[in-house]
Design goal:
The complex is a heterodimer of chains A (about 150) and B (about 700).
Chain A: E1 3-8, E2 11-16, H1 23-30, E3 50-52, E4 55-57, E5 71-73, H2 86-93, H3 103-116, H4 122-126, H5 137-150
Parallel strand pairs in A: 1-5
Antiparallel strand pairs in A: 1-2, 3-4, 3-5
Chain B: E1 12-15, E2 21-25, H1 40-44, E3 48-51, E4 58-63, E5 69-72, H2 82-94, E6 101-102, H3 121-148, E7 156-158, E8 161-163, E9 169-171, H4 172-179, H5 209-213, E10 229-234, E11 242-247, H6 249-252, E12 257-263, E13 266-271, H7 274-283, E14 285-289, H8 298-308, E15 320-328, E16 331-332, E17 340-345, E18 350-354, H9 359-370, E19 377-381, H10 395-407, E20 411-414, H11 417-422, E21 426-427, E22 430-439, E23 442-455, E24 490-500, H12 512-529, H13 534-541, H14 545-557, E25 568-577, E26 580-589, E27 597-606, H15 613-633, E28 638-639, E29 642-643, E30 662-667, H16 681-697, E31 703-704
Parallel strand pairs in B: 1-3, 5-6, 10-20, 15-31, 18-19, 23-24, 27-30
Antiparallel strand pairs in B: 1-2, 2-4, 4-5, 7-8, 8-9, 10-13, 11-14, 12-13, 15-22, 16-21, 17-18, 17-20, 22-23, 25-26, 26-27, 28-29
Classes of the chains: A alpha+beta (about 150), B alpha+beta (about 700).
The structure holds FE2/S2 (inorganic) cluster (2 copies).
């Protein structure tokens, strides 16, 4: 079995896995990193959203082979110790979550958006594809704007 | 077990323990959970009776030596915020810090009320939870008074501590052992009057919010218990299809595959990871026999439903009629977390972990399915990633147990998203015929007949797939809407059904989500034919003052009647249920009628005491998105016995771009007991969206979802 090394949430890891194994299952089933959630497995719901070299990806459709030698960040790697990332903090301040299942993906998508677009318009926020079946969209919008304003 | 008789349901017991542990029985019937205001009977009876026993049937509160207040909750948290609401009730009466209150979910019990549904959790827990905490507080204060030799009355409680006038203080944790020995507290153990509430009624962030935003919140699929192996099931293309033959040689030969077993729903693969399991599933060569609906498609289902709607009676003589026929498609629950269950079935016992609204029924069914006595089956209730009624059924748990038994190993079964959408469950499709008869400017009769699909299987035993939903089965009557919301003269109605072998389930707000939505559309059309404004017409015909008040609230704050450009319009609707009422006003931009956008939504609700206004607002927000989704865009097609949709790519539940840019909630202040709120908003939101769309486009919406 081939093995792949990458940096996961700041720490180097090596896994033995088939080349086509999606990163999502490498994270969840091999490394027990369960923040990224399965919601469809086909890149649609975005519950699994994480970052590869700082950019947004859907790990359910990214083979582990594509991650070799790169930096993977999941929701678990966002906070700095006990200090939450400003987007996580905005999510707390706005009490965005309901069931919470989509929220790791929502937060990672928002972080990626704010990195590219520090002052996103409503139209830019509208382009976020992540499904929230609990319907927390208004608070997501509010939290993104708050995180943007708080810098 | 000794029990002090009382008219009230809120007797509190002390359990014999080395830490302070008190328990209150939970009534099965939420209607008994009323009138917590103290009565003479309360004052007479001692507030505690020492008992030994288990916590079956009880809400149990323990104060640990580590200064935590732990209440094991016989309900499930699926996002509706029940754990936060209960923590607030406990913190209020104990004067504990919210962070010191833990609300783990109780595992399946053998007695009592462990049912989450019908929007009754807060109303059924409000009395017992506060009484429980108030009793614990009285004992802690008494224990501190004895320790310090001061009058108990002179002591205060704050931040999980008892505080003396001289500034001395003790944590509850340091007092718990001595409080456990107090039988008769020397201060009142009555809950506070509402006027002294400082926690209840204050907008509060969820107690699990930090766990969620850091990815620590644990769902069934995140468990690593018992070495359970990832498991998926190859399912038939058609609903209810069956395996004729399977060639599993290629699948079994694949790396990381542990077992391949046949189950009622298809062929299960147990593997090292979900990647291995999916790959092996796809390598199975299965010949399927079509399911019982293989010749049936939407058009036929629709015409059978139409034919099953009972005739409306004759209209009053001399009246004019406003009539409409309405069709609602099947709708998937599609909770964000797909059905997942961990099962460890051994020869003499079984243990299951999953998110369940009905864990007691689930345990009985699982025990029967695997051939064990109920007492040998443990069901651990996990938090759920959404439910909307889906977790009333326990299909996946039974399936996981059977796979574990057959494979002789612990399994972690996950339904794929395609499994979830293509194999149910779903809100039944329905057809409605509504007629309002009016004369001299008033509605004199209102008739509503409907038919919906009901779940039935030709051979008995097929319901072993997780049970039909007895607790939420539709009552044949009364129709129209139970509440008789309007002064519409003679009300009449009837219902029929079309029995199909199709997996159905109660969907948030159940029948009201279709019935009341259709009725609110007719109310708008009646107003139009009478030349009345929809808000003004409702104001003069609504029966209940509270409903008028919420309507007025949205009309004022939502600027009802403000001018809008062509292609845009406002719409309004109201609903009353669960001892609560709600009004919703939306604005729709339907400049492109195929791609409408709800731009604004204003909701007003009167739910009695709002324990956590922030949580309540979240529930109303969710129901507005449900209304938008089900009316405008999200539904399921049946093509020759197959559900056409298979993910959120084609089941169009709303995304951010479909959600209102502006959303606001107004809560009517109230000291009434809490009513239900989790499902309340669906019909009002759906009705308002349909009415706004009708006004924006000059059409009469009849078939939902509209863009389908
Ligand atoms: S699970 Fe990755 S996008 Fe849905
Ligand atoms: S919070 Fe439940 S799916 Fe988004």
């Amino acid at each position: 079995m081939p093995s792949y090394s990458f940096v996961l949430n700041g720490k180097p890891v090596t896994v033995e896995a088939p080349a086509d194994m999606p990163l999502l299952w490498v994270l969840r089933d091999l490394l027990n990193v369960t923040g990224p959630k399965y919601g469809c497995g086909v890149g649609v719901c975005r519950a699994c959203t994480s970052h590869l070299d700082g950019g947004e990806i859907q790990p359910c459709v990214v083979p582990v082979a594509d991650c070799a030698g790169r930096r993977v960040t999941t929701i678990e790697g966002l906070a700095d110790g006990d200090t939450l990332h400003p987007v996580q903090q905005a999510w707390l301040d706005c009490d965005v979550a309901q069931c919470g299942f989509c929220q790791p993906g929502q937060i990672m998508a928002a972080v990626a958006l704010l990195k590219k677009t520090p002052r996103p318009t409503d139209a830019a926020i509208d382009r976020i594809e992540n499904v929230c079946r609990c319907g927390t969209y208004s608070r997501i919008r509010e939290a993104i704007k708050k995180a943007s304003a708080d810098g | 077990m000794a029990r002090q008789l009382s008219r009230r349901k809120f007797v509190v017991y002390s359990l014999a323990a080395s830490t302070l542990t008190v328990a209150a029985p939970l009534g099965c019937d939420p209607s008994t959970a009323e009138g917590i205001e103290p009565t003479a009977a309360d004052r007479r009876r001692p507030s505690d009776v020492l008992v030994t026993g288990t916590d079956e049937e009880m809400l149990v509160l323990e104060v640990t030596a580590a200064n935590k207040v732990v209440v094991r909750l016989p309900r499930v948290e699926v996002g509706q915020g029940v754990t936060t609401a209960v923590a607030m009730m406990i913190a209020e009466e104990l004067d504990a810090r919210l962070v010191d209150v833990d609300i783990p979910l109780a595992e399946a019990r053998t007695k009592g009320n462990q049912y989450t549904g019908g929007s009754n959790s807060v109303s059924s827990l409000y009395g017992p939870a506060r009484q429980l905490a108030a009793t614990a507080r009285a004992k802690l204060v008494t224990a501190a008074a004895r320790r310090w030799h001061v009058p108990a009355r002179s002591l205060r409680t704050r931040d999980t501590r008892v505080i003396a006038p001289d500034g001395r203080s003790a944590t509850f944790g340091s007092l718990t052992a001595s409080a456990a020995r107090i039988h008769r507290p020397s201060v009142s153990s009555r809950p506070k009057p509402a006027s002294r509430h400082r926690v209840i009624g204050r907008p509060t962030t969820r107690i699990d919010a930090r766990d969620i935003v850091t990815g620590k919140a644990t769902y069934a699929g995140d468990l690593t218990v018992a070495g359970a192996k990832p498991t998926v099931v190859a399912r038939p293309p058609t609903l209810g299809g069956t395996v004729v033959s399977v060639d599993d040689r290629a699948a079994r030969a694949m790396p990381g595959v542990h077992a391949v077993v046949k189950v009622a729903g298809g062929v299960a693969v147990v593997a090292d990871s979900f990647h291995h399991a999916f790959k092996a599933r796809d390598a199975l060569r299965i010949t399927w026999a079509p399911g019982p609906l293989a010749s049936l498609s939407d058009a036929a289902i629709r015409s059978r439903l139409r034919a099953a709607v009972p005739r409306l009676g004759t209209a009053p003589r001399g009246s004019a009629q406003t009539e409409g026929e309405f069709e609602f498609a099947f709708v998937s629950h599609a909770p964000m977390e797909v059905l997942t269950a961990v099962a460890d079935v051994r020869p003499g016992r079984a243990e299951i972990w999953f998110s369940s609204q009905t864990p007691m029924d689930a345990r009985d069914s699982i025990a029967a399915a695997v051939g064990l006595p109920t007492s040998k089956v443990r069901v651990h209730v996990m938090r759920g990633g959404g439910s909307f009624g889906r977790r009333l059924n326990y299909d996946a748990a039974i399936e996981a147990a059977l796979i574990s038994k057959a494979a002789r190993r612990p399994v972690k079964l996950m339904w794929s998203r395609a499994d979830d959408i293509r194999h149910g469950r779903m809100r039944p499709a329905s057809h409605h015929r509504i007629r309002a008869s009016h004369a001299r400017g008033r509605v004199v009769a209102f008739a509503h007949s409907m038919a919906s699909v009901s779940e039935a299987y030709p051979e008995s035993g097929a319901t072993a797939q997780g049970g039909v939903t007895p607790a939420v089965a539709r009552a044949a009557n009364p129709l129209p809407s139970d509440s008789g919301l309007y002064n519409f003269g003679r009300l009449s109605g009837n219902s029929g059904s079309v029995e199909l072998a199709i997996p159905l389930g109660a969907w948030r707000s159940v029948d009201s989500g279709t019935m009341r939505t259709a009725e609110e559309i007719v109310v708008d059309e009646v107003a139009r034919s009478l030349g009345r404004d929809p808000v003004a017409f409702r104001r003069t015909t609504l029966r209940n003052k509270s409903v008028k008040a919420v309507l007025d609230k949205v009309a004022t704050t939502g600027h009802w009647g403000r001018p809008l450009p062509a292609g845009q319009a406002q719409g309004v609707a109201v609903h009353e249920e669960y001892g609560s009422c709600v009004a919703c006003l939306v604005e729709v931009n339907a400049t492109d009628p195929k791609n409408p956008r709800v731009t604004r939504a204003v909701v007003a609700a009167d739910v009695g005491t709002a324990v956590n206004p922030r949580g309540l607002e979240a529930q109303l927000m969710g129901t507005v998105i449900d209304g938008i989704s089900t009316v405008l865009q999200a539904g399921l097609h049946i093509d020759r016995g197959t559900v056409r949709e298979s993910s959120y790519a084609d089941f169009h539940y709303a995304r951010q771009r479909h959600a209102p840019l502006h959303f606001e909630v107004h809560l009517i202040p109230s000291r009434r007991e809490p009513g239900g709120a989790g499902e309340l908003g669906v019909p009002a939101a759906a009705g308002a969206v349909a009415n706004a769309y009708a006004r924006a486009t000059g059409t009469k919406p009849r078939r939902f979802p509209l863009t389908f």
